[in-house]
Specification:
Radius of gyration: 19 Å
GO biological process, one term: tRNA queuosine(34) biosynthetic process
CATH topology: Tetrahydropterin Synthase, Chain A
Catalytic activity: 7,8-dihydroneopterin 3'-triphosphate + H2O = 6-carboxy-5,6,7,8-tetrahydropterin + triphosphate + acetaldehyde + 2 H(+)
CATH architecture: 2-Layer Sandwich
Keywords: Lyase, Metal-binding, Queuosine biosynthesis, Zinc
Largest sheet: 5 strands, mixed
Order of helices and strands: EEHEHHEE
Helix content: 10-25%
Number of domains: 1
Cofactor: Zn(2+)
GO molecular function: 6-carboxytetrahydropterin synthase activity; metal ion binding
Length: 145
Amino acid sequence: MFSVPKELKKPTGESLVYCHRRVMVSKEFTFDAAHHLFNYDGKCKALHGHTYRLQIAVSGMLDDRAMAVDFGDIKEIYKNHLEPHLDHRYLNESLPYMNTTAENMVYWIFKQVAQHLPKEREIRIEYVRLYETPTSFAEFRREWE
């Protein structure tokens, strides 16, 4: 059972940071897109589409609000730098020249996010995971760079 607080807590002037370690946060997005594969002898050789699920994970030291990265900042990177190339697009035209496999795409997404992250507090990208179907994904991690 939830009880209604008698008053809202107010800052005391002390640090709001409890964790003094690096923390990872992740945000998930979905987008629909069409593509076809080159040099592939299977049904994905033909034009087809997916509802992709994208996970972007970044880490950093906490700021004075006790946040590593605001989820809204990750969303802004997605909206401004990824979504225009991915959502409801023909990926073979909207992405740089590549075979539009999940493996190639996840690396391109990783590089785009890394390029647009804030530079303070050692914020860095940890991984990008791209689901092509509910049970099949590709992933690229910072330590593999």
